[in-house]
Amino acid sequence: MSMLLLACQRHDLSTAELLLQHGACDADLSIMTSAVSNDDTEVIGVLLSHQHAYADTKFAINRAAMLSVLGQAGSDAADGSVGTRSTISSLSSLLAIMIDWRALKLRRLAMPWLSQTCLSYLRMSSAGSPPPRLLQTSDHYAAYLVTRIDVSENQLTSLPSMLFSLPSLRILIAAGNQVSLRVTFSVSTAVSFIPRAFSDLYLICAFSVIFNLSSVQYFPAYTNVNCTV
């Protein structure tokens, strides 16, 4: 039995993160498969954060969305100016995160996995302690840091709808799955009928962008994603 497996079975997350930082790995994905079967979100987050999550230097987080989240905590401070300065300082230290979950034999995705992955990545990257607001896993605020997601070459048949409401997400790649996706636009609004959260989001299937939602260009859906507009 490997040390990493033992740490995960004991739910010793700090030891698991330390082992991963020093070369341990789940090469055959057996530990993660077991964690998924047991719905152990925290262990899944730790495993998916190492070598599957990176700092994104191309895209930035949605500062307005993060200010809104962190500002709610800062506004509770006794001194409003101190709270504001603390909020801005917290924001400047946050990393944009890209998720690379290609070919991990995933049969499903869960939003808590994404939040826990981001929190674990922040801890292992020595980015300091995440703002307390991001630790509220029930709201998935940590996932607001995600700018790119690649879940291609898995065994997915669906994608969580909340993925499409992540304010910082710019690119989502889901090629090589069997995802049936329905994207519906309401044409009742004369000025703009694209949900604000979709602006600048690219959904990539096979080898090409199938929607450029910022300019409403439609491309063939190819084979792995069925799209209905």
Short synopsis of the structure:
The chain is α/β, with parallel strands linked by helices and 229 residues long.
General description of the model:
With 229 residues, this protein is an alpha/beta fold. The chain has one domain. 31% of the residues lie in helices and 15% in strands. It has helices spanning 3-9, 13-21, 30-37, 41-49, 63-74, 80-92, 111-124; strands spanning 53-55, 97-100, 146-150, 171-173, 179-182, 202-205, 208-212, 217-218, 225-228. The strands form 2 sheets. A 7-stranded mixed beta sheet has the order 1-2-3-4-6-7-8, covered by helices on one side. Strands 5-9 form a two-stranded parallel sheet. A hairpin with a 4-residue loop joins β7 and β8. α3 (30-37) packs antiparallel against α4, α4 packs across α7 (111-124) and α5 (63-74) runs antiparallel to α6. The chain is globular. Mean pLDDT is 74; it is low at 183-199 and 205-229.
Strand order of the largest sheet: 1-2-3-4-6-7-8
Compressed to H and E, one letter per element, the order equals HHHHEHHEHEEEEEEE
- Category from helices, strands and their pairing: alpha/beta
Helix content: 25-40%
Measured by DSSP, the beta-strand proportion falls in: 5-15%
- Radius of gyration, Cα only, in angstroms? 19 Å
| Tally of DSSP β-strands | 9
Work out the helix count: 7
**Poorly predicted runs of 5 or more residues:** 183-199, 205-229
Q: Which of globular, elongated, flat, extended, rod-shaped describes the shape?
A: globular
Give a short account of the largest sheet. 7 strands, mixed
Number of domains: 1
Distance between the termini: 50 Å
